[in-house]
Amino acid sequence: MIAETVCSAAAAAGLGIAAVTAYRKRFLAATRIAAYSLVPLGLVMTGVVDWLADTAFSPTAWAGFGVLGVAWLLFASSRAVERRRGGTRKERKEAKAGAQREAVAPAASAPSLGAGSRQSTRPATAPRAEAASDDFSDIEAILKKHGI
Fold this sequence. Notes:
The chain is an all-alpha fold. The protein has helices at 2-23, 27-46, 48-56, 59-85, 89-100, 130-145. Keywords: Membrane, Transmembrane, Transmembrane helix.
């Protein structure tokens, strides 16, 4: 009962403000104010306010919201685990079948390096062992290309 009275009073006050705004020749703003002020009245007339009041004080409704929250948490955690594992079961089976085919990757080509736009201010590093140099040669080439 009190919610309907408050909503009706808010609508009446909003319409009064809209009338004052329209009197000041600001018709677009007055139209927006009138639209916003009619929303609470429409909610009262459709019964949404009664439904919200009944829901807010109902333990069954709050238990239902709790169940929905648990369902959402379960769904979100299962999606997070699925992403961490690498996709759905079908995608994992396809990846496993692809790995069993023993596909041979073509040899990686050396990156083409042009003259850099910036000169490195650091002195060149001492040469390292051949095995370690092979592992990081691609990374070093990319860093040199960007002047890092």
